């Protein structure tokens, strides 16, 4: 796979950076339509654009199994690409698939069981990214998914509810518990 060119559309910006988002999404429509018709070059270009985005979503949810989850998500995206009716919805549609696959892979890998509290890294450890990863590892895939969608992707509770297929009160409860657990283990 080659890296996208500097003029390539990128995944949707975060909520705080909405400038030009519609233009980037519209640029993908011809590419999506060509891939839906079976154009292999278009499919490869779409794969190059979706892979990093899906990887960023699957990694924090499925942790060590993130690459497997991303691969499963990409397979599901391209297997069902012809069913996508609105090409402009590609990234939202792919996000839903990626989160679903990441949770499924993490659960299958028995990541639902939290690690022992004695394994929590000490606060102030110089490898902050490793510390955050270790703390995230102690959360269930469902809690990691809601944290990623709400706090990293910047989605509102309604959007998270729709993506995860659970009621909004469940999203609020999971988010509250995930943040509380994260904080408790971080400070532990």
TrEMBL record:
Protein keywords: DNA-binding, Sigma factor, Transcription, Transcription regulation
Instruction: Tell me one GO biological process term.
Output: DNA-templated transcription initiation
Compositionally skewed regions (Pro residues) per UniProt: 1-14
Where is region (Disordered) located?
1-28
InterPro entries associated with the record: RNA_pol_sigma-70-like (IPR039425), RNA_pol_sigma-70_dom (IPR014284), RNA_pol_sigma70_r4_t2 (IPR013249), RNA_pol_sigma_r2 (IPR013325), RNA_pol_sigma_r3/r4-like (IPR013324), WH-like_DNA-bd_sf (IPR036388)
According to the UniProt entry, its GO molecular function terms are: DNA binding; sigma factor activity
Indicate yes or no for the key word Signal.
no
Q: Which residues form the RNA polymerase sigma factor 70 region 4 type domain?
A: 131-181
Gene3D superfamilies, per database record: 1.10.1740.10, Winged helix-like DNA-binding domain superfamily/Winged helix DNA-binding domain
Protein name listed in UniProt: RNA polymerase subunit sigma-24
């Amino acid at each position: 796979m080659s890296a996208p060119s500097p003029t390539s559309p990128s995944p949707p910006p975060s909520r705080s950076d909405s400038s030009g988002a519609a233009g980037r999404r519209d640029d993908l429509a011809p590419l999506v339509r060509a891939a839906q018709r079976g154009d292999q070059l278009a499919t490869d270009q779409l794969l190059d654009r979706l892979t990093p985005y899906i990887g960023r979503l699957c990694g924090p949810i499925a942790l060590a199994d993130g690459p497997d989850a991303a691969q499963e998500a990409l397979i599901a995206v391209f297997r069902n690409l012809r069913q996508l009716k609105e090409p402009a919805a590609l990234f939202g549609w792919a996000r839903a698939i990626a989160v679903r696959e990441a949770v499924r892979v993490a659960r299958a890998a028995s990541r639902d069981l939290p690690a022992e509290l004695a394994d929590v890294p000490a606060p102030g450890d110089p490898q902050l990214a490793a510390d955050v990863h270790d703390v995230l590892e102690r959360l269930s895939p469902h809690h990691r998914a809601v944290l990623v969608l709400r706090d990293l992707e910047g989605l509102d509770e309604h959007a998270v509810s729709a993506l995860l297929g659970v009621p909004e009160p469940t999203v609020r409860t999971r988010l509250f518990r995930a943040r509380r657990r994260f904080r408790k283990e971080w400070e532990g």
